[in-house]
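Long-time lurker. I teach an intro course on protein structure, and each term I like to show students one example going from raw sequence to a predicted 3D structure in token notation. This year I'd like something fresh instead of my usual example. Would anyone be willing to generate the tokens for the chain below so I can use it in lecture? Attribution to the forum is fine with me.
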Amino acid sequence: MKNKQIIALLLILIFNLFSLSIFAEHCIEKEDFPNIPCNLIDQLLEANVSISQITTINNQIAEYNLSKSEIESYVNKITKNIGEYPHDHDLNTITPNGIIPYQDLSSKWHKIGDHIGDFKRIEKRIKLHDINKNKITYLPAYLVNNEKYFCLEDLTNSGYSHYWDEHEKKCKMTYDGKTYKRLPEHKKSSGKIHHSNIKTYINNHRVHSYNIGGYSLVKVDSLKDILKNTHKVEIVGAHNNIGPVDISLPSFKITLNGHVIDNSYNKYPLLVYKDITYFPMTYHGARFLGLKANWYEKSKMYHNKGVLFIGTCSNSEKQSTFKMIRNNHKNHKHDHAHIASYGLALNTVNPNNFIRSEEEEYPILNFRGITYFPLTWKYAVDQFGWEYSYTHEEGLKINSVHSSRKVIDDSIIGN
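-- Reply from a regular --
Happy to contribute to a lecture. Here you go:
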């Protein structure tokens, strides 16, 4: 009798230990899985999904920024054991053991460099509004498979650092709000998409991207999801009026080729915007400094829109005296200008290389119907070939020197 009681007690103990192990397996802290709604955690446990798998699911949801509907679809596919797994908004395949990135999956049937699609630039822009700093920047927009994309590398103009790991083939863009030297701009308006093994990240979140020859296109929706707490992301028209912007008259002396400029009554005075001096590209003012500024009302090569050409002028076109149009009234110290929204052909007649003013850190402005260029090193020295200096005593001095640039026949713009 005692033996039977002992055996019975042992059986009860074994059963309790077994039950306890099952309870321990399913007794989890739901707070450990903040990316999965509680009801879906229960659904996974009822389907005998292991805690390790739930951990993987939770991490993948965070990494790929799945929406609520995508999470529900993910869990339903897993618990119902449906073989055809769903995809997230970047075409990554969602499986019970985690997400297989589209680029990793496509590697099974594409070789690096294969032509897998096409892209084209569209008459739209991506507006990034930094909520904390109240700063707005604009990125070009592209179309791939009727979806809107942006160039990942353009984020360097919006407070993002750029990191490239050649060994791992990883491109990482991380926001820290600092000002960085902008990477060379992607200037092609259309072209081919090539398969690549490059992995791209925004703020440590991996994002699907298309390689377009040294640059990566990322879907705008991915940017919206990742930046929803720090930035407002909008798609706006390419030539929305950005402005008016506040400008002022320079408070310092200005000398052009030895001629002191009177800004007080000059109809087209030099201006200051964002602490940078701006020069008016009038017909005579440009030629006084060795440039030509030719306006074309309609250009077939630029969608029948207006284009201003700026380039080196011939010796016969240069003017030795500065011609100023005088105002009847004195200029206000503070005024408003607008950002130029027409074609800007600087030392080129190729529309793919026209300046997109709204995307520049120091945009080209329009004041009283005249185009104004910022006197940064990029323009004054590299593009115009001028010499310039500034001191508190002498103010700003600009001298045009003999330019090594050839004179471009810009008449093709108007044909």
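Some talking points for your students: Residues 20-26 have pLDDT under 50 and may be disordered. DSSP finds eight helices and 26 strands in the chain.
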